[in-house]
Structure formats: structure tokens, C-alpha cells
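Review form for a predicted model. The reviewer records the input and the model, then writes brief findings.
Reviewer: anonymous (R2)
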Amino acid sequence: MAVDAARSEERFTSAGATRVMVAACRAAGLDGRDAELIRLGENALFRLASAPVIVRVARGEEWLSTARTEVAVSRWLTGEGFPAVRVVEDLEQPFLIDGHPVTFWHLIVEGDRKATYGELGGVLRDLHSLSVPDGLRLPSFDPFDKQDLRLNRAVIPDDDKVFLRKRWRELRDKYAELRFESAKGPVHGDAHVQNLMVDDQGKVILIDFEAFCFDHPEWDLMVTAVEHHSLGWQSDEQYADFVAAYGRDLYDWDGYETLRGLQEFGMTTWLMQNVQEDEQTAAEYRRRIAGLRNDDGPRNWRPW
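Model under review:
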């Protein structure tokens, strides 16, 4: 049963997401008891105890079309033989439970290592070389699509909201002036190394298609470039491996600073949605908003 989208979003907590997950499992003929919450971000992710399945609960009904795209992209990539996470095939997805889109995915049994930045560059190079089939409709990349909802509903100080809205307007003006160098194609949209998993057979698998779109490849290169050049989250060697595997360093492009601003803004507003969950999240949000207020200052942000 659908409810008002704003109300469902406002009460999107770990406890509320758990209730939706249990109801969705019941509707899908699965057992949601003793499921483990493994992540709460734009979605809540649960690992079922009863089956090798991951359940993904979205924040509100506004994300229904996104969930449909995720399912379609997974099925397309699987058909291409591309190493991508797979939806559970025998279910008509997504489900809509109390205003929350819910999808079911095969569990990836992880191996004993993490994906490397060189592997990320190679996966993105291969992804960007694919041709999107005529029947798959993908949106354009929109760095602002969720920001209004996030700002309206965020439980943060009023002066932070005023600052973020001003920064949002400034970034929109800069974005309008961007001139990309690459042709459009399939883009992951959130291409950080944590969205690669290495299974117990050593296969590197691309996950999380929430932001998947048809647009310029620069959007995918932006993530690792900002994490390295602005945040210092990779060593010079790791970043060099990424650049060598992909074949391009976005830092050399005159649009990098605009994309850096968009990426850091999105990273901050993504985290601010969960400031009420615990003090660690709230403290990291305060670090990030302080960094946005000082463009030239160091970024002591932590991966989340």
C-alpha cells in the first residue's frame, strides 16, 4: 500500500526500513527474520539469514523509477556477460511496500581481498565501451536531482541549509558552463571502488546501479579523481594505476574544479540524511560542511 512520499521519507530510519524489508520478504515468499542491516544510506541494505539474498529498500516512492532502472540495467549487463550484480530472476521487481520501492539481489560471496583502483579503471573502461540497447531507457546524469528533497527534509541547523542552498545555486551556474570532451554512453554514476566487489572466485563485480545513466564518462572519472586530489583517500600509486587502466586523468581537464564541487556537495548532502542515526554520522557531517565552507582548506573527511 502506497502512502504519502514525504511521510515515508521522513520516517526512513533503520527501524522503519526493517519493517518494510520484512513485509517485502513476506510478499516475495522469503523469510526476513534475523536479516542483518549492512548499510543505511540512500537505501537500506539487508542480508537475509534465510537465503543468499540482499534486500534493498529505497527511501520513498520518488525512487520507484530509479529502482526499475536498476533492475533493467542488471538484466542488460548480465545478458552482455558483463561482471555485474544480478537481481533475483523469478520475482516481478521492484515491489512497492508502504511507499518504499524494494528490490532483491543475489548475494555476492566475497573473497579475501578488495578490488583495486586499477581494476576500477578497467571496469569503467569496459563499461563505457558498451552500446546501450534501444529498448533500455536511461536518464541523463543529474547532479542536482536529489538535492532539493535532501535539503527540505534534513535535520540540520538553519544556517547550514542557507549555506547549502546558496552553494547549490552557485554550482548550478558553473554546471551550465561545462563543456565535456567525451561522447555520451553508459555511465555508472557512483563509480567508487566500494562499488566493486571481489567474489570468492576472484571475479571483480560491479554493483549499485541507482545512479546508472546515459551521459558523459567524466561523471564516473570524477569520483576517484576527487577522492585522490581533494580528499587524499588514495596513494599516488593507486591513483596512477586507475589512470593507467582507464587511459585518462580527469585532473588535467579544465572542468575538474566544477565536478569537484559537485562531488563534494553530493557527498555532504548524502551523509546529512542520517545525522539522527548516531553521533559518528553527525560528527562526520559537521566535518564535511566545515570543509565546504572553506574551499581552499584541507579536507579531513573520512570514507563512509
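Findings: Residues 151 and 165 are 8 Å apart (CA to CA).
Further findings: The two ends are 33 Å apart (CA to CA).
Recommendation: see findings above.
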